[in-house]
Amino acid sequence: MSAFRSTLRPSAFGCFARTHRTTVQAVRFQTTTSATASSATSSALPLTWPEYLTLRHRRRVLAQIFSIPGAIGGLVGGGAYFGSLEADPTQPIFGVEPMFVYAGATLGCMGLGYLAGPTIGTLFFKAINGSRNKAMDVMDKRFYEHIKARRVDPSYQSVNNPTPDYYGEKIKSMSTYRRWLRDQAAYRRKALHGMKEEEAL
């Protein structure tokens, strides 16, 4: 009987030890796999979200800044061109005096310059951030997917209750992004509450 016990105990202990080692190795493998998957997901993005939002805000500011010289340039250019034309009051253009037509065309040039300003600002941003243009394109796509998945349904909006920042244009940092999420959730609750009241009526 003692010989049987002496034979059984080492065998049982060895089995337990092998099981314990296998369990530990499995846990380590799962932990390593999870960490590797997490790091692979984070490394898949060419920029971190704070870096991207900072660059996105700078690009937007440059686009707005260039609108001002664009409008001035359009006004000056249109005024110089149409001001050099001879205006004969006896020959109206579409029934309107040429002076008023030229003045309207000059204002139209100013408007075109204002609209072209953001495009020029964006090109300037790409010129000074050439190494990050491809990364910005990738992040722009991912950011749009995030916004599209989390923004409210536009069918809820009304004239007195428009959707809050539908395209996420005011997002310039992680804090403003979290605030945007709270605004979307609050608007969604408010819209659904109003729909329930209408259904009750």
Automatic annotation (TrEMBL):
Main location: mitochondrion
Domain of life, source organism: Eukaryota
Alphabetical keyword list: Membrane, Mitochondrion, Mitochondrion inner membrane, Protein transport, Transit peptide, Translocation, Transmembrane, Transmembrane helix, Transport
Keyword Ubl conjugation attached: no
Any one Pfam family match given in the protein's UniProt record, by short name: Pam17
InterPro entries reported in the protein's UniProt record: Pam17
Keyword Membrane in annotation: yes
Transmembrane segments: 61-82, 102-125
Protein location: Mitochondrion inner membrane
Protein family per UniProt: Belongs to the PAM17 family.
Record function comment: Component of the PAM complex, a complex required for the translocation of transit peptide-containing proteins from the inner membrane into the mitochondrial matrix in an ATP-dependent manner.
Quaternary structure and interacting proteins, as annotated: Component of the PAM complex.
Protein name (record): Presequence translocated-associated motor subunit PAM17
Organism for this UniProt entry: Naganishia liquefaciens
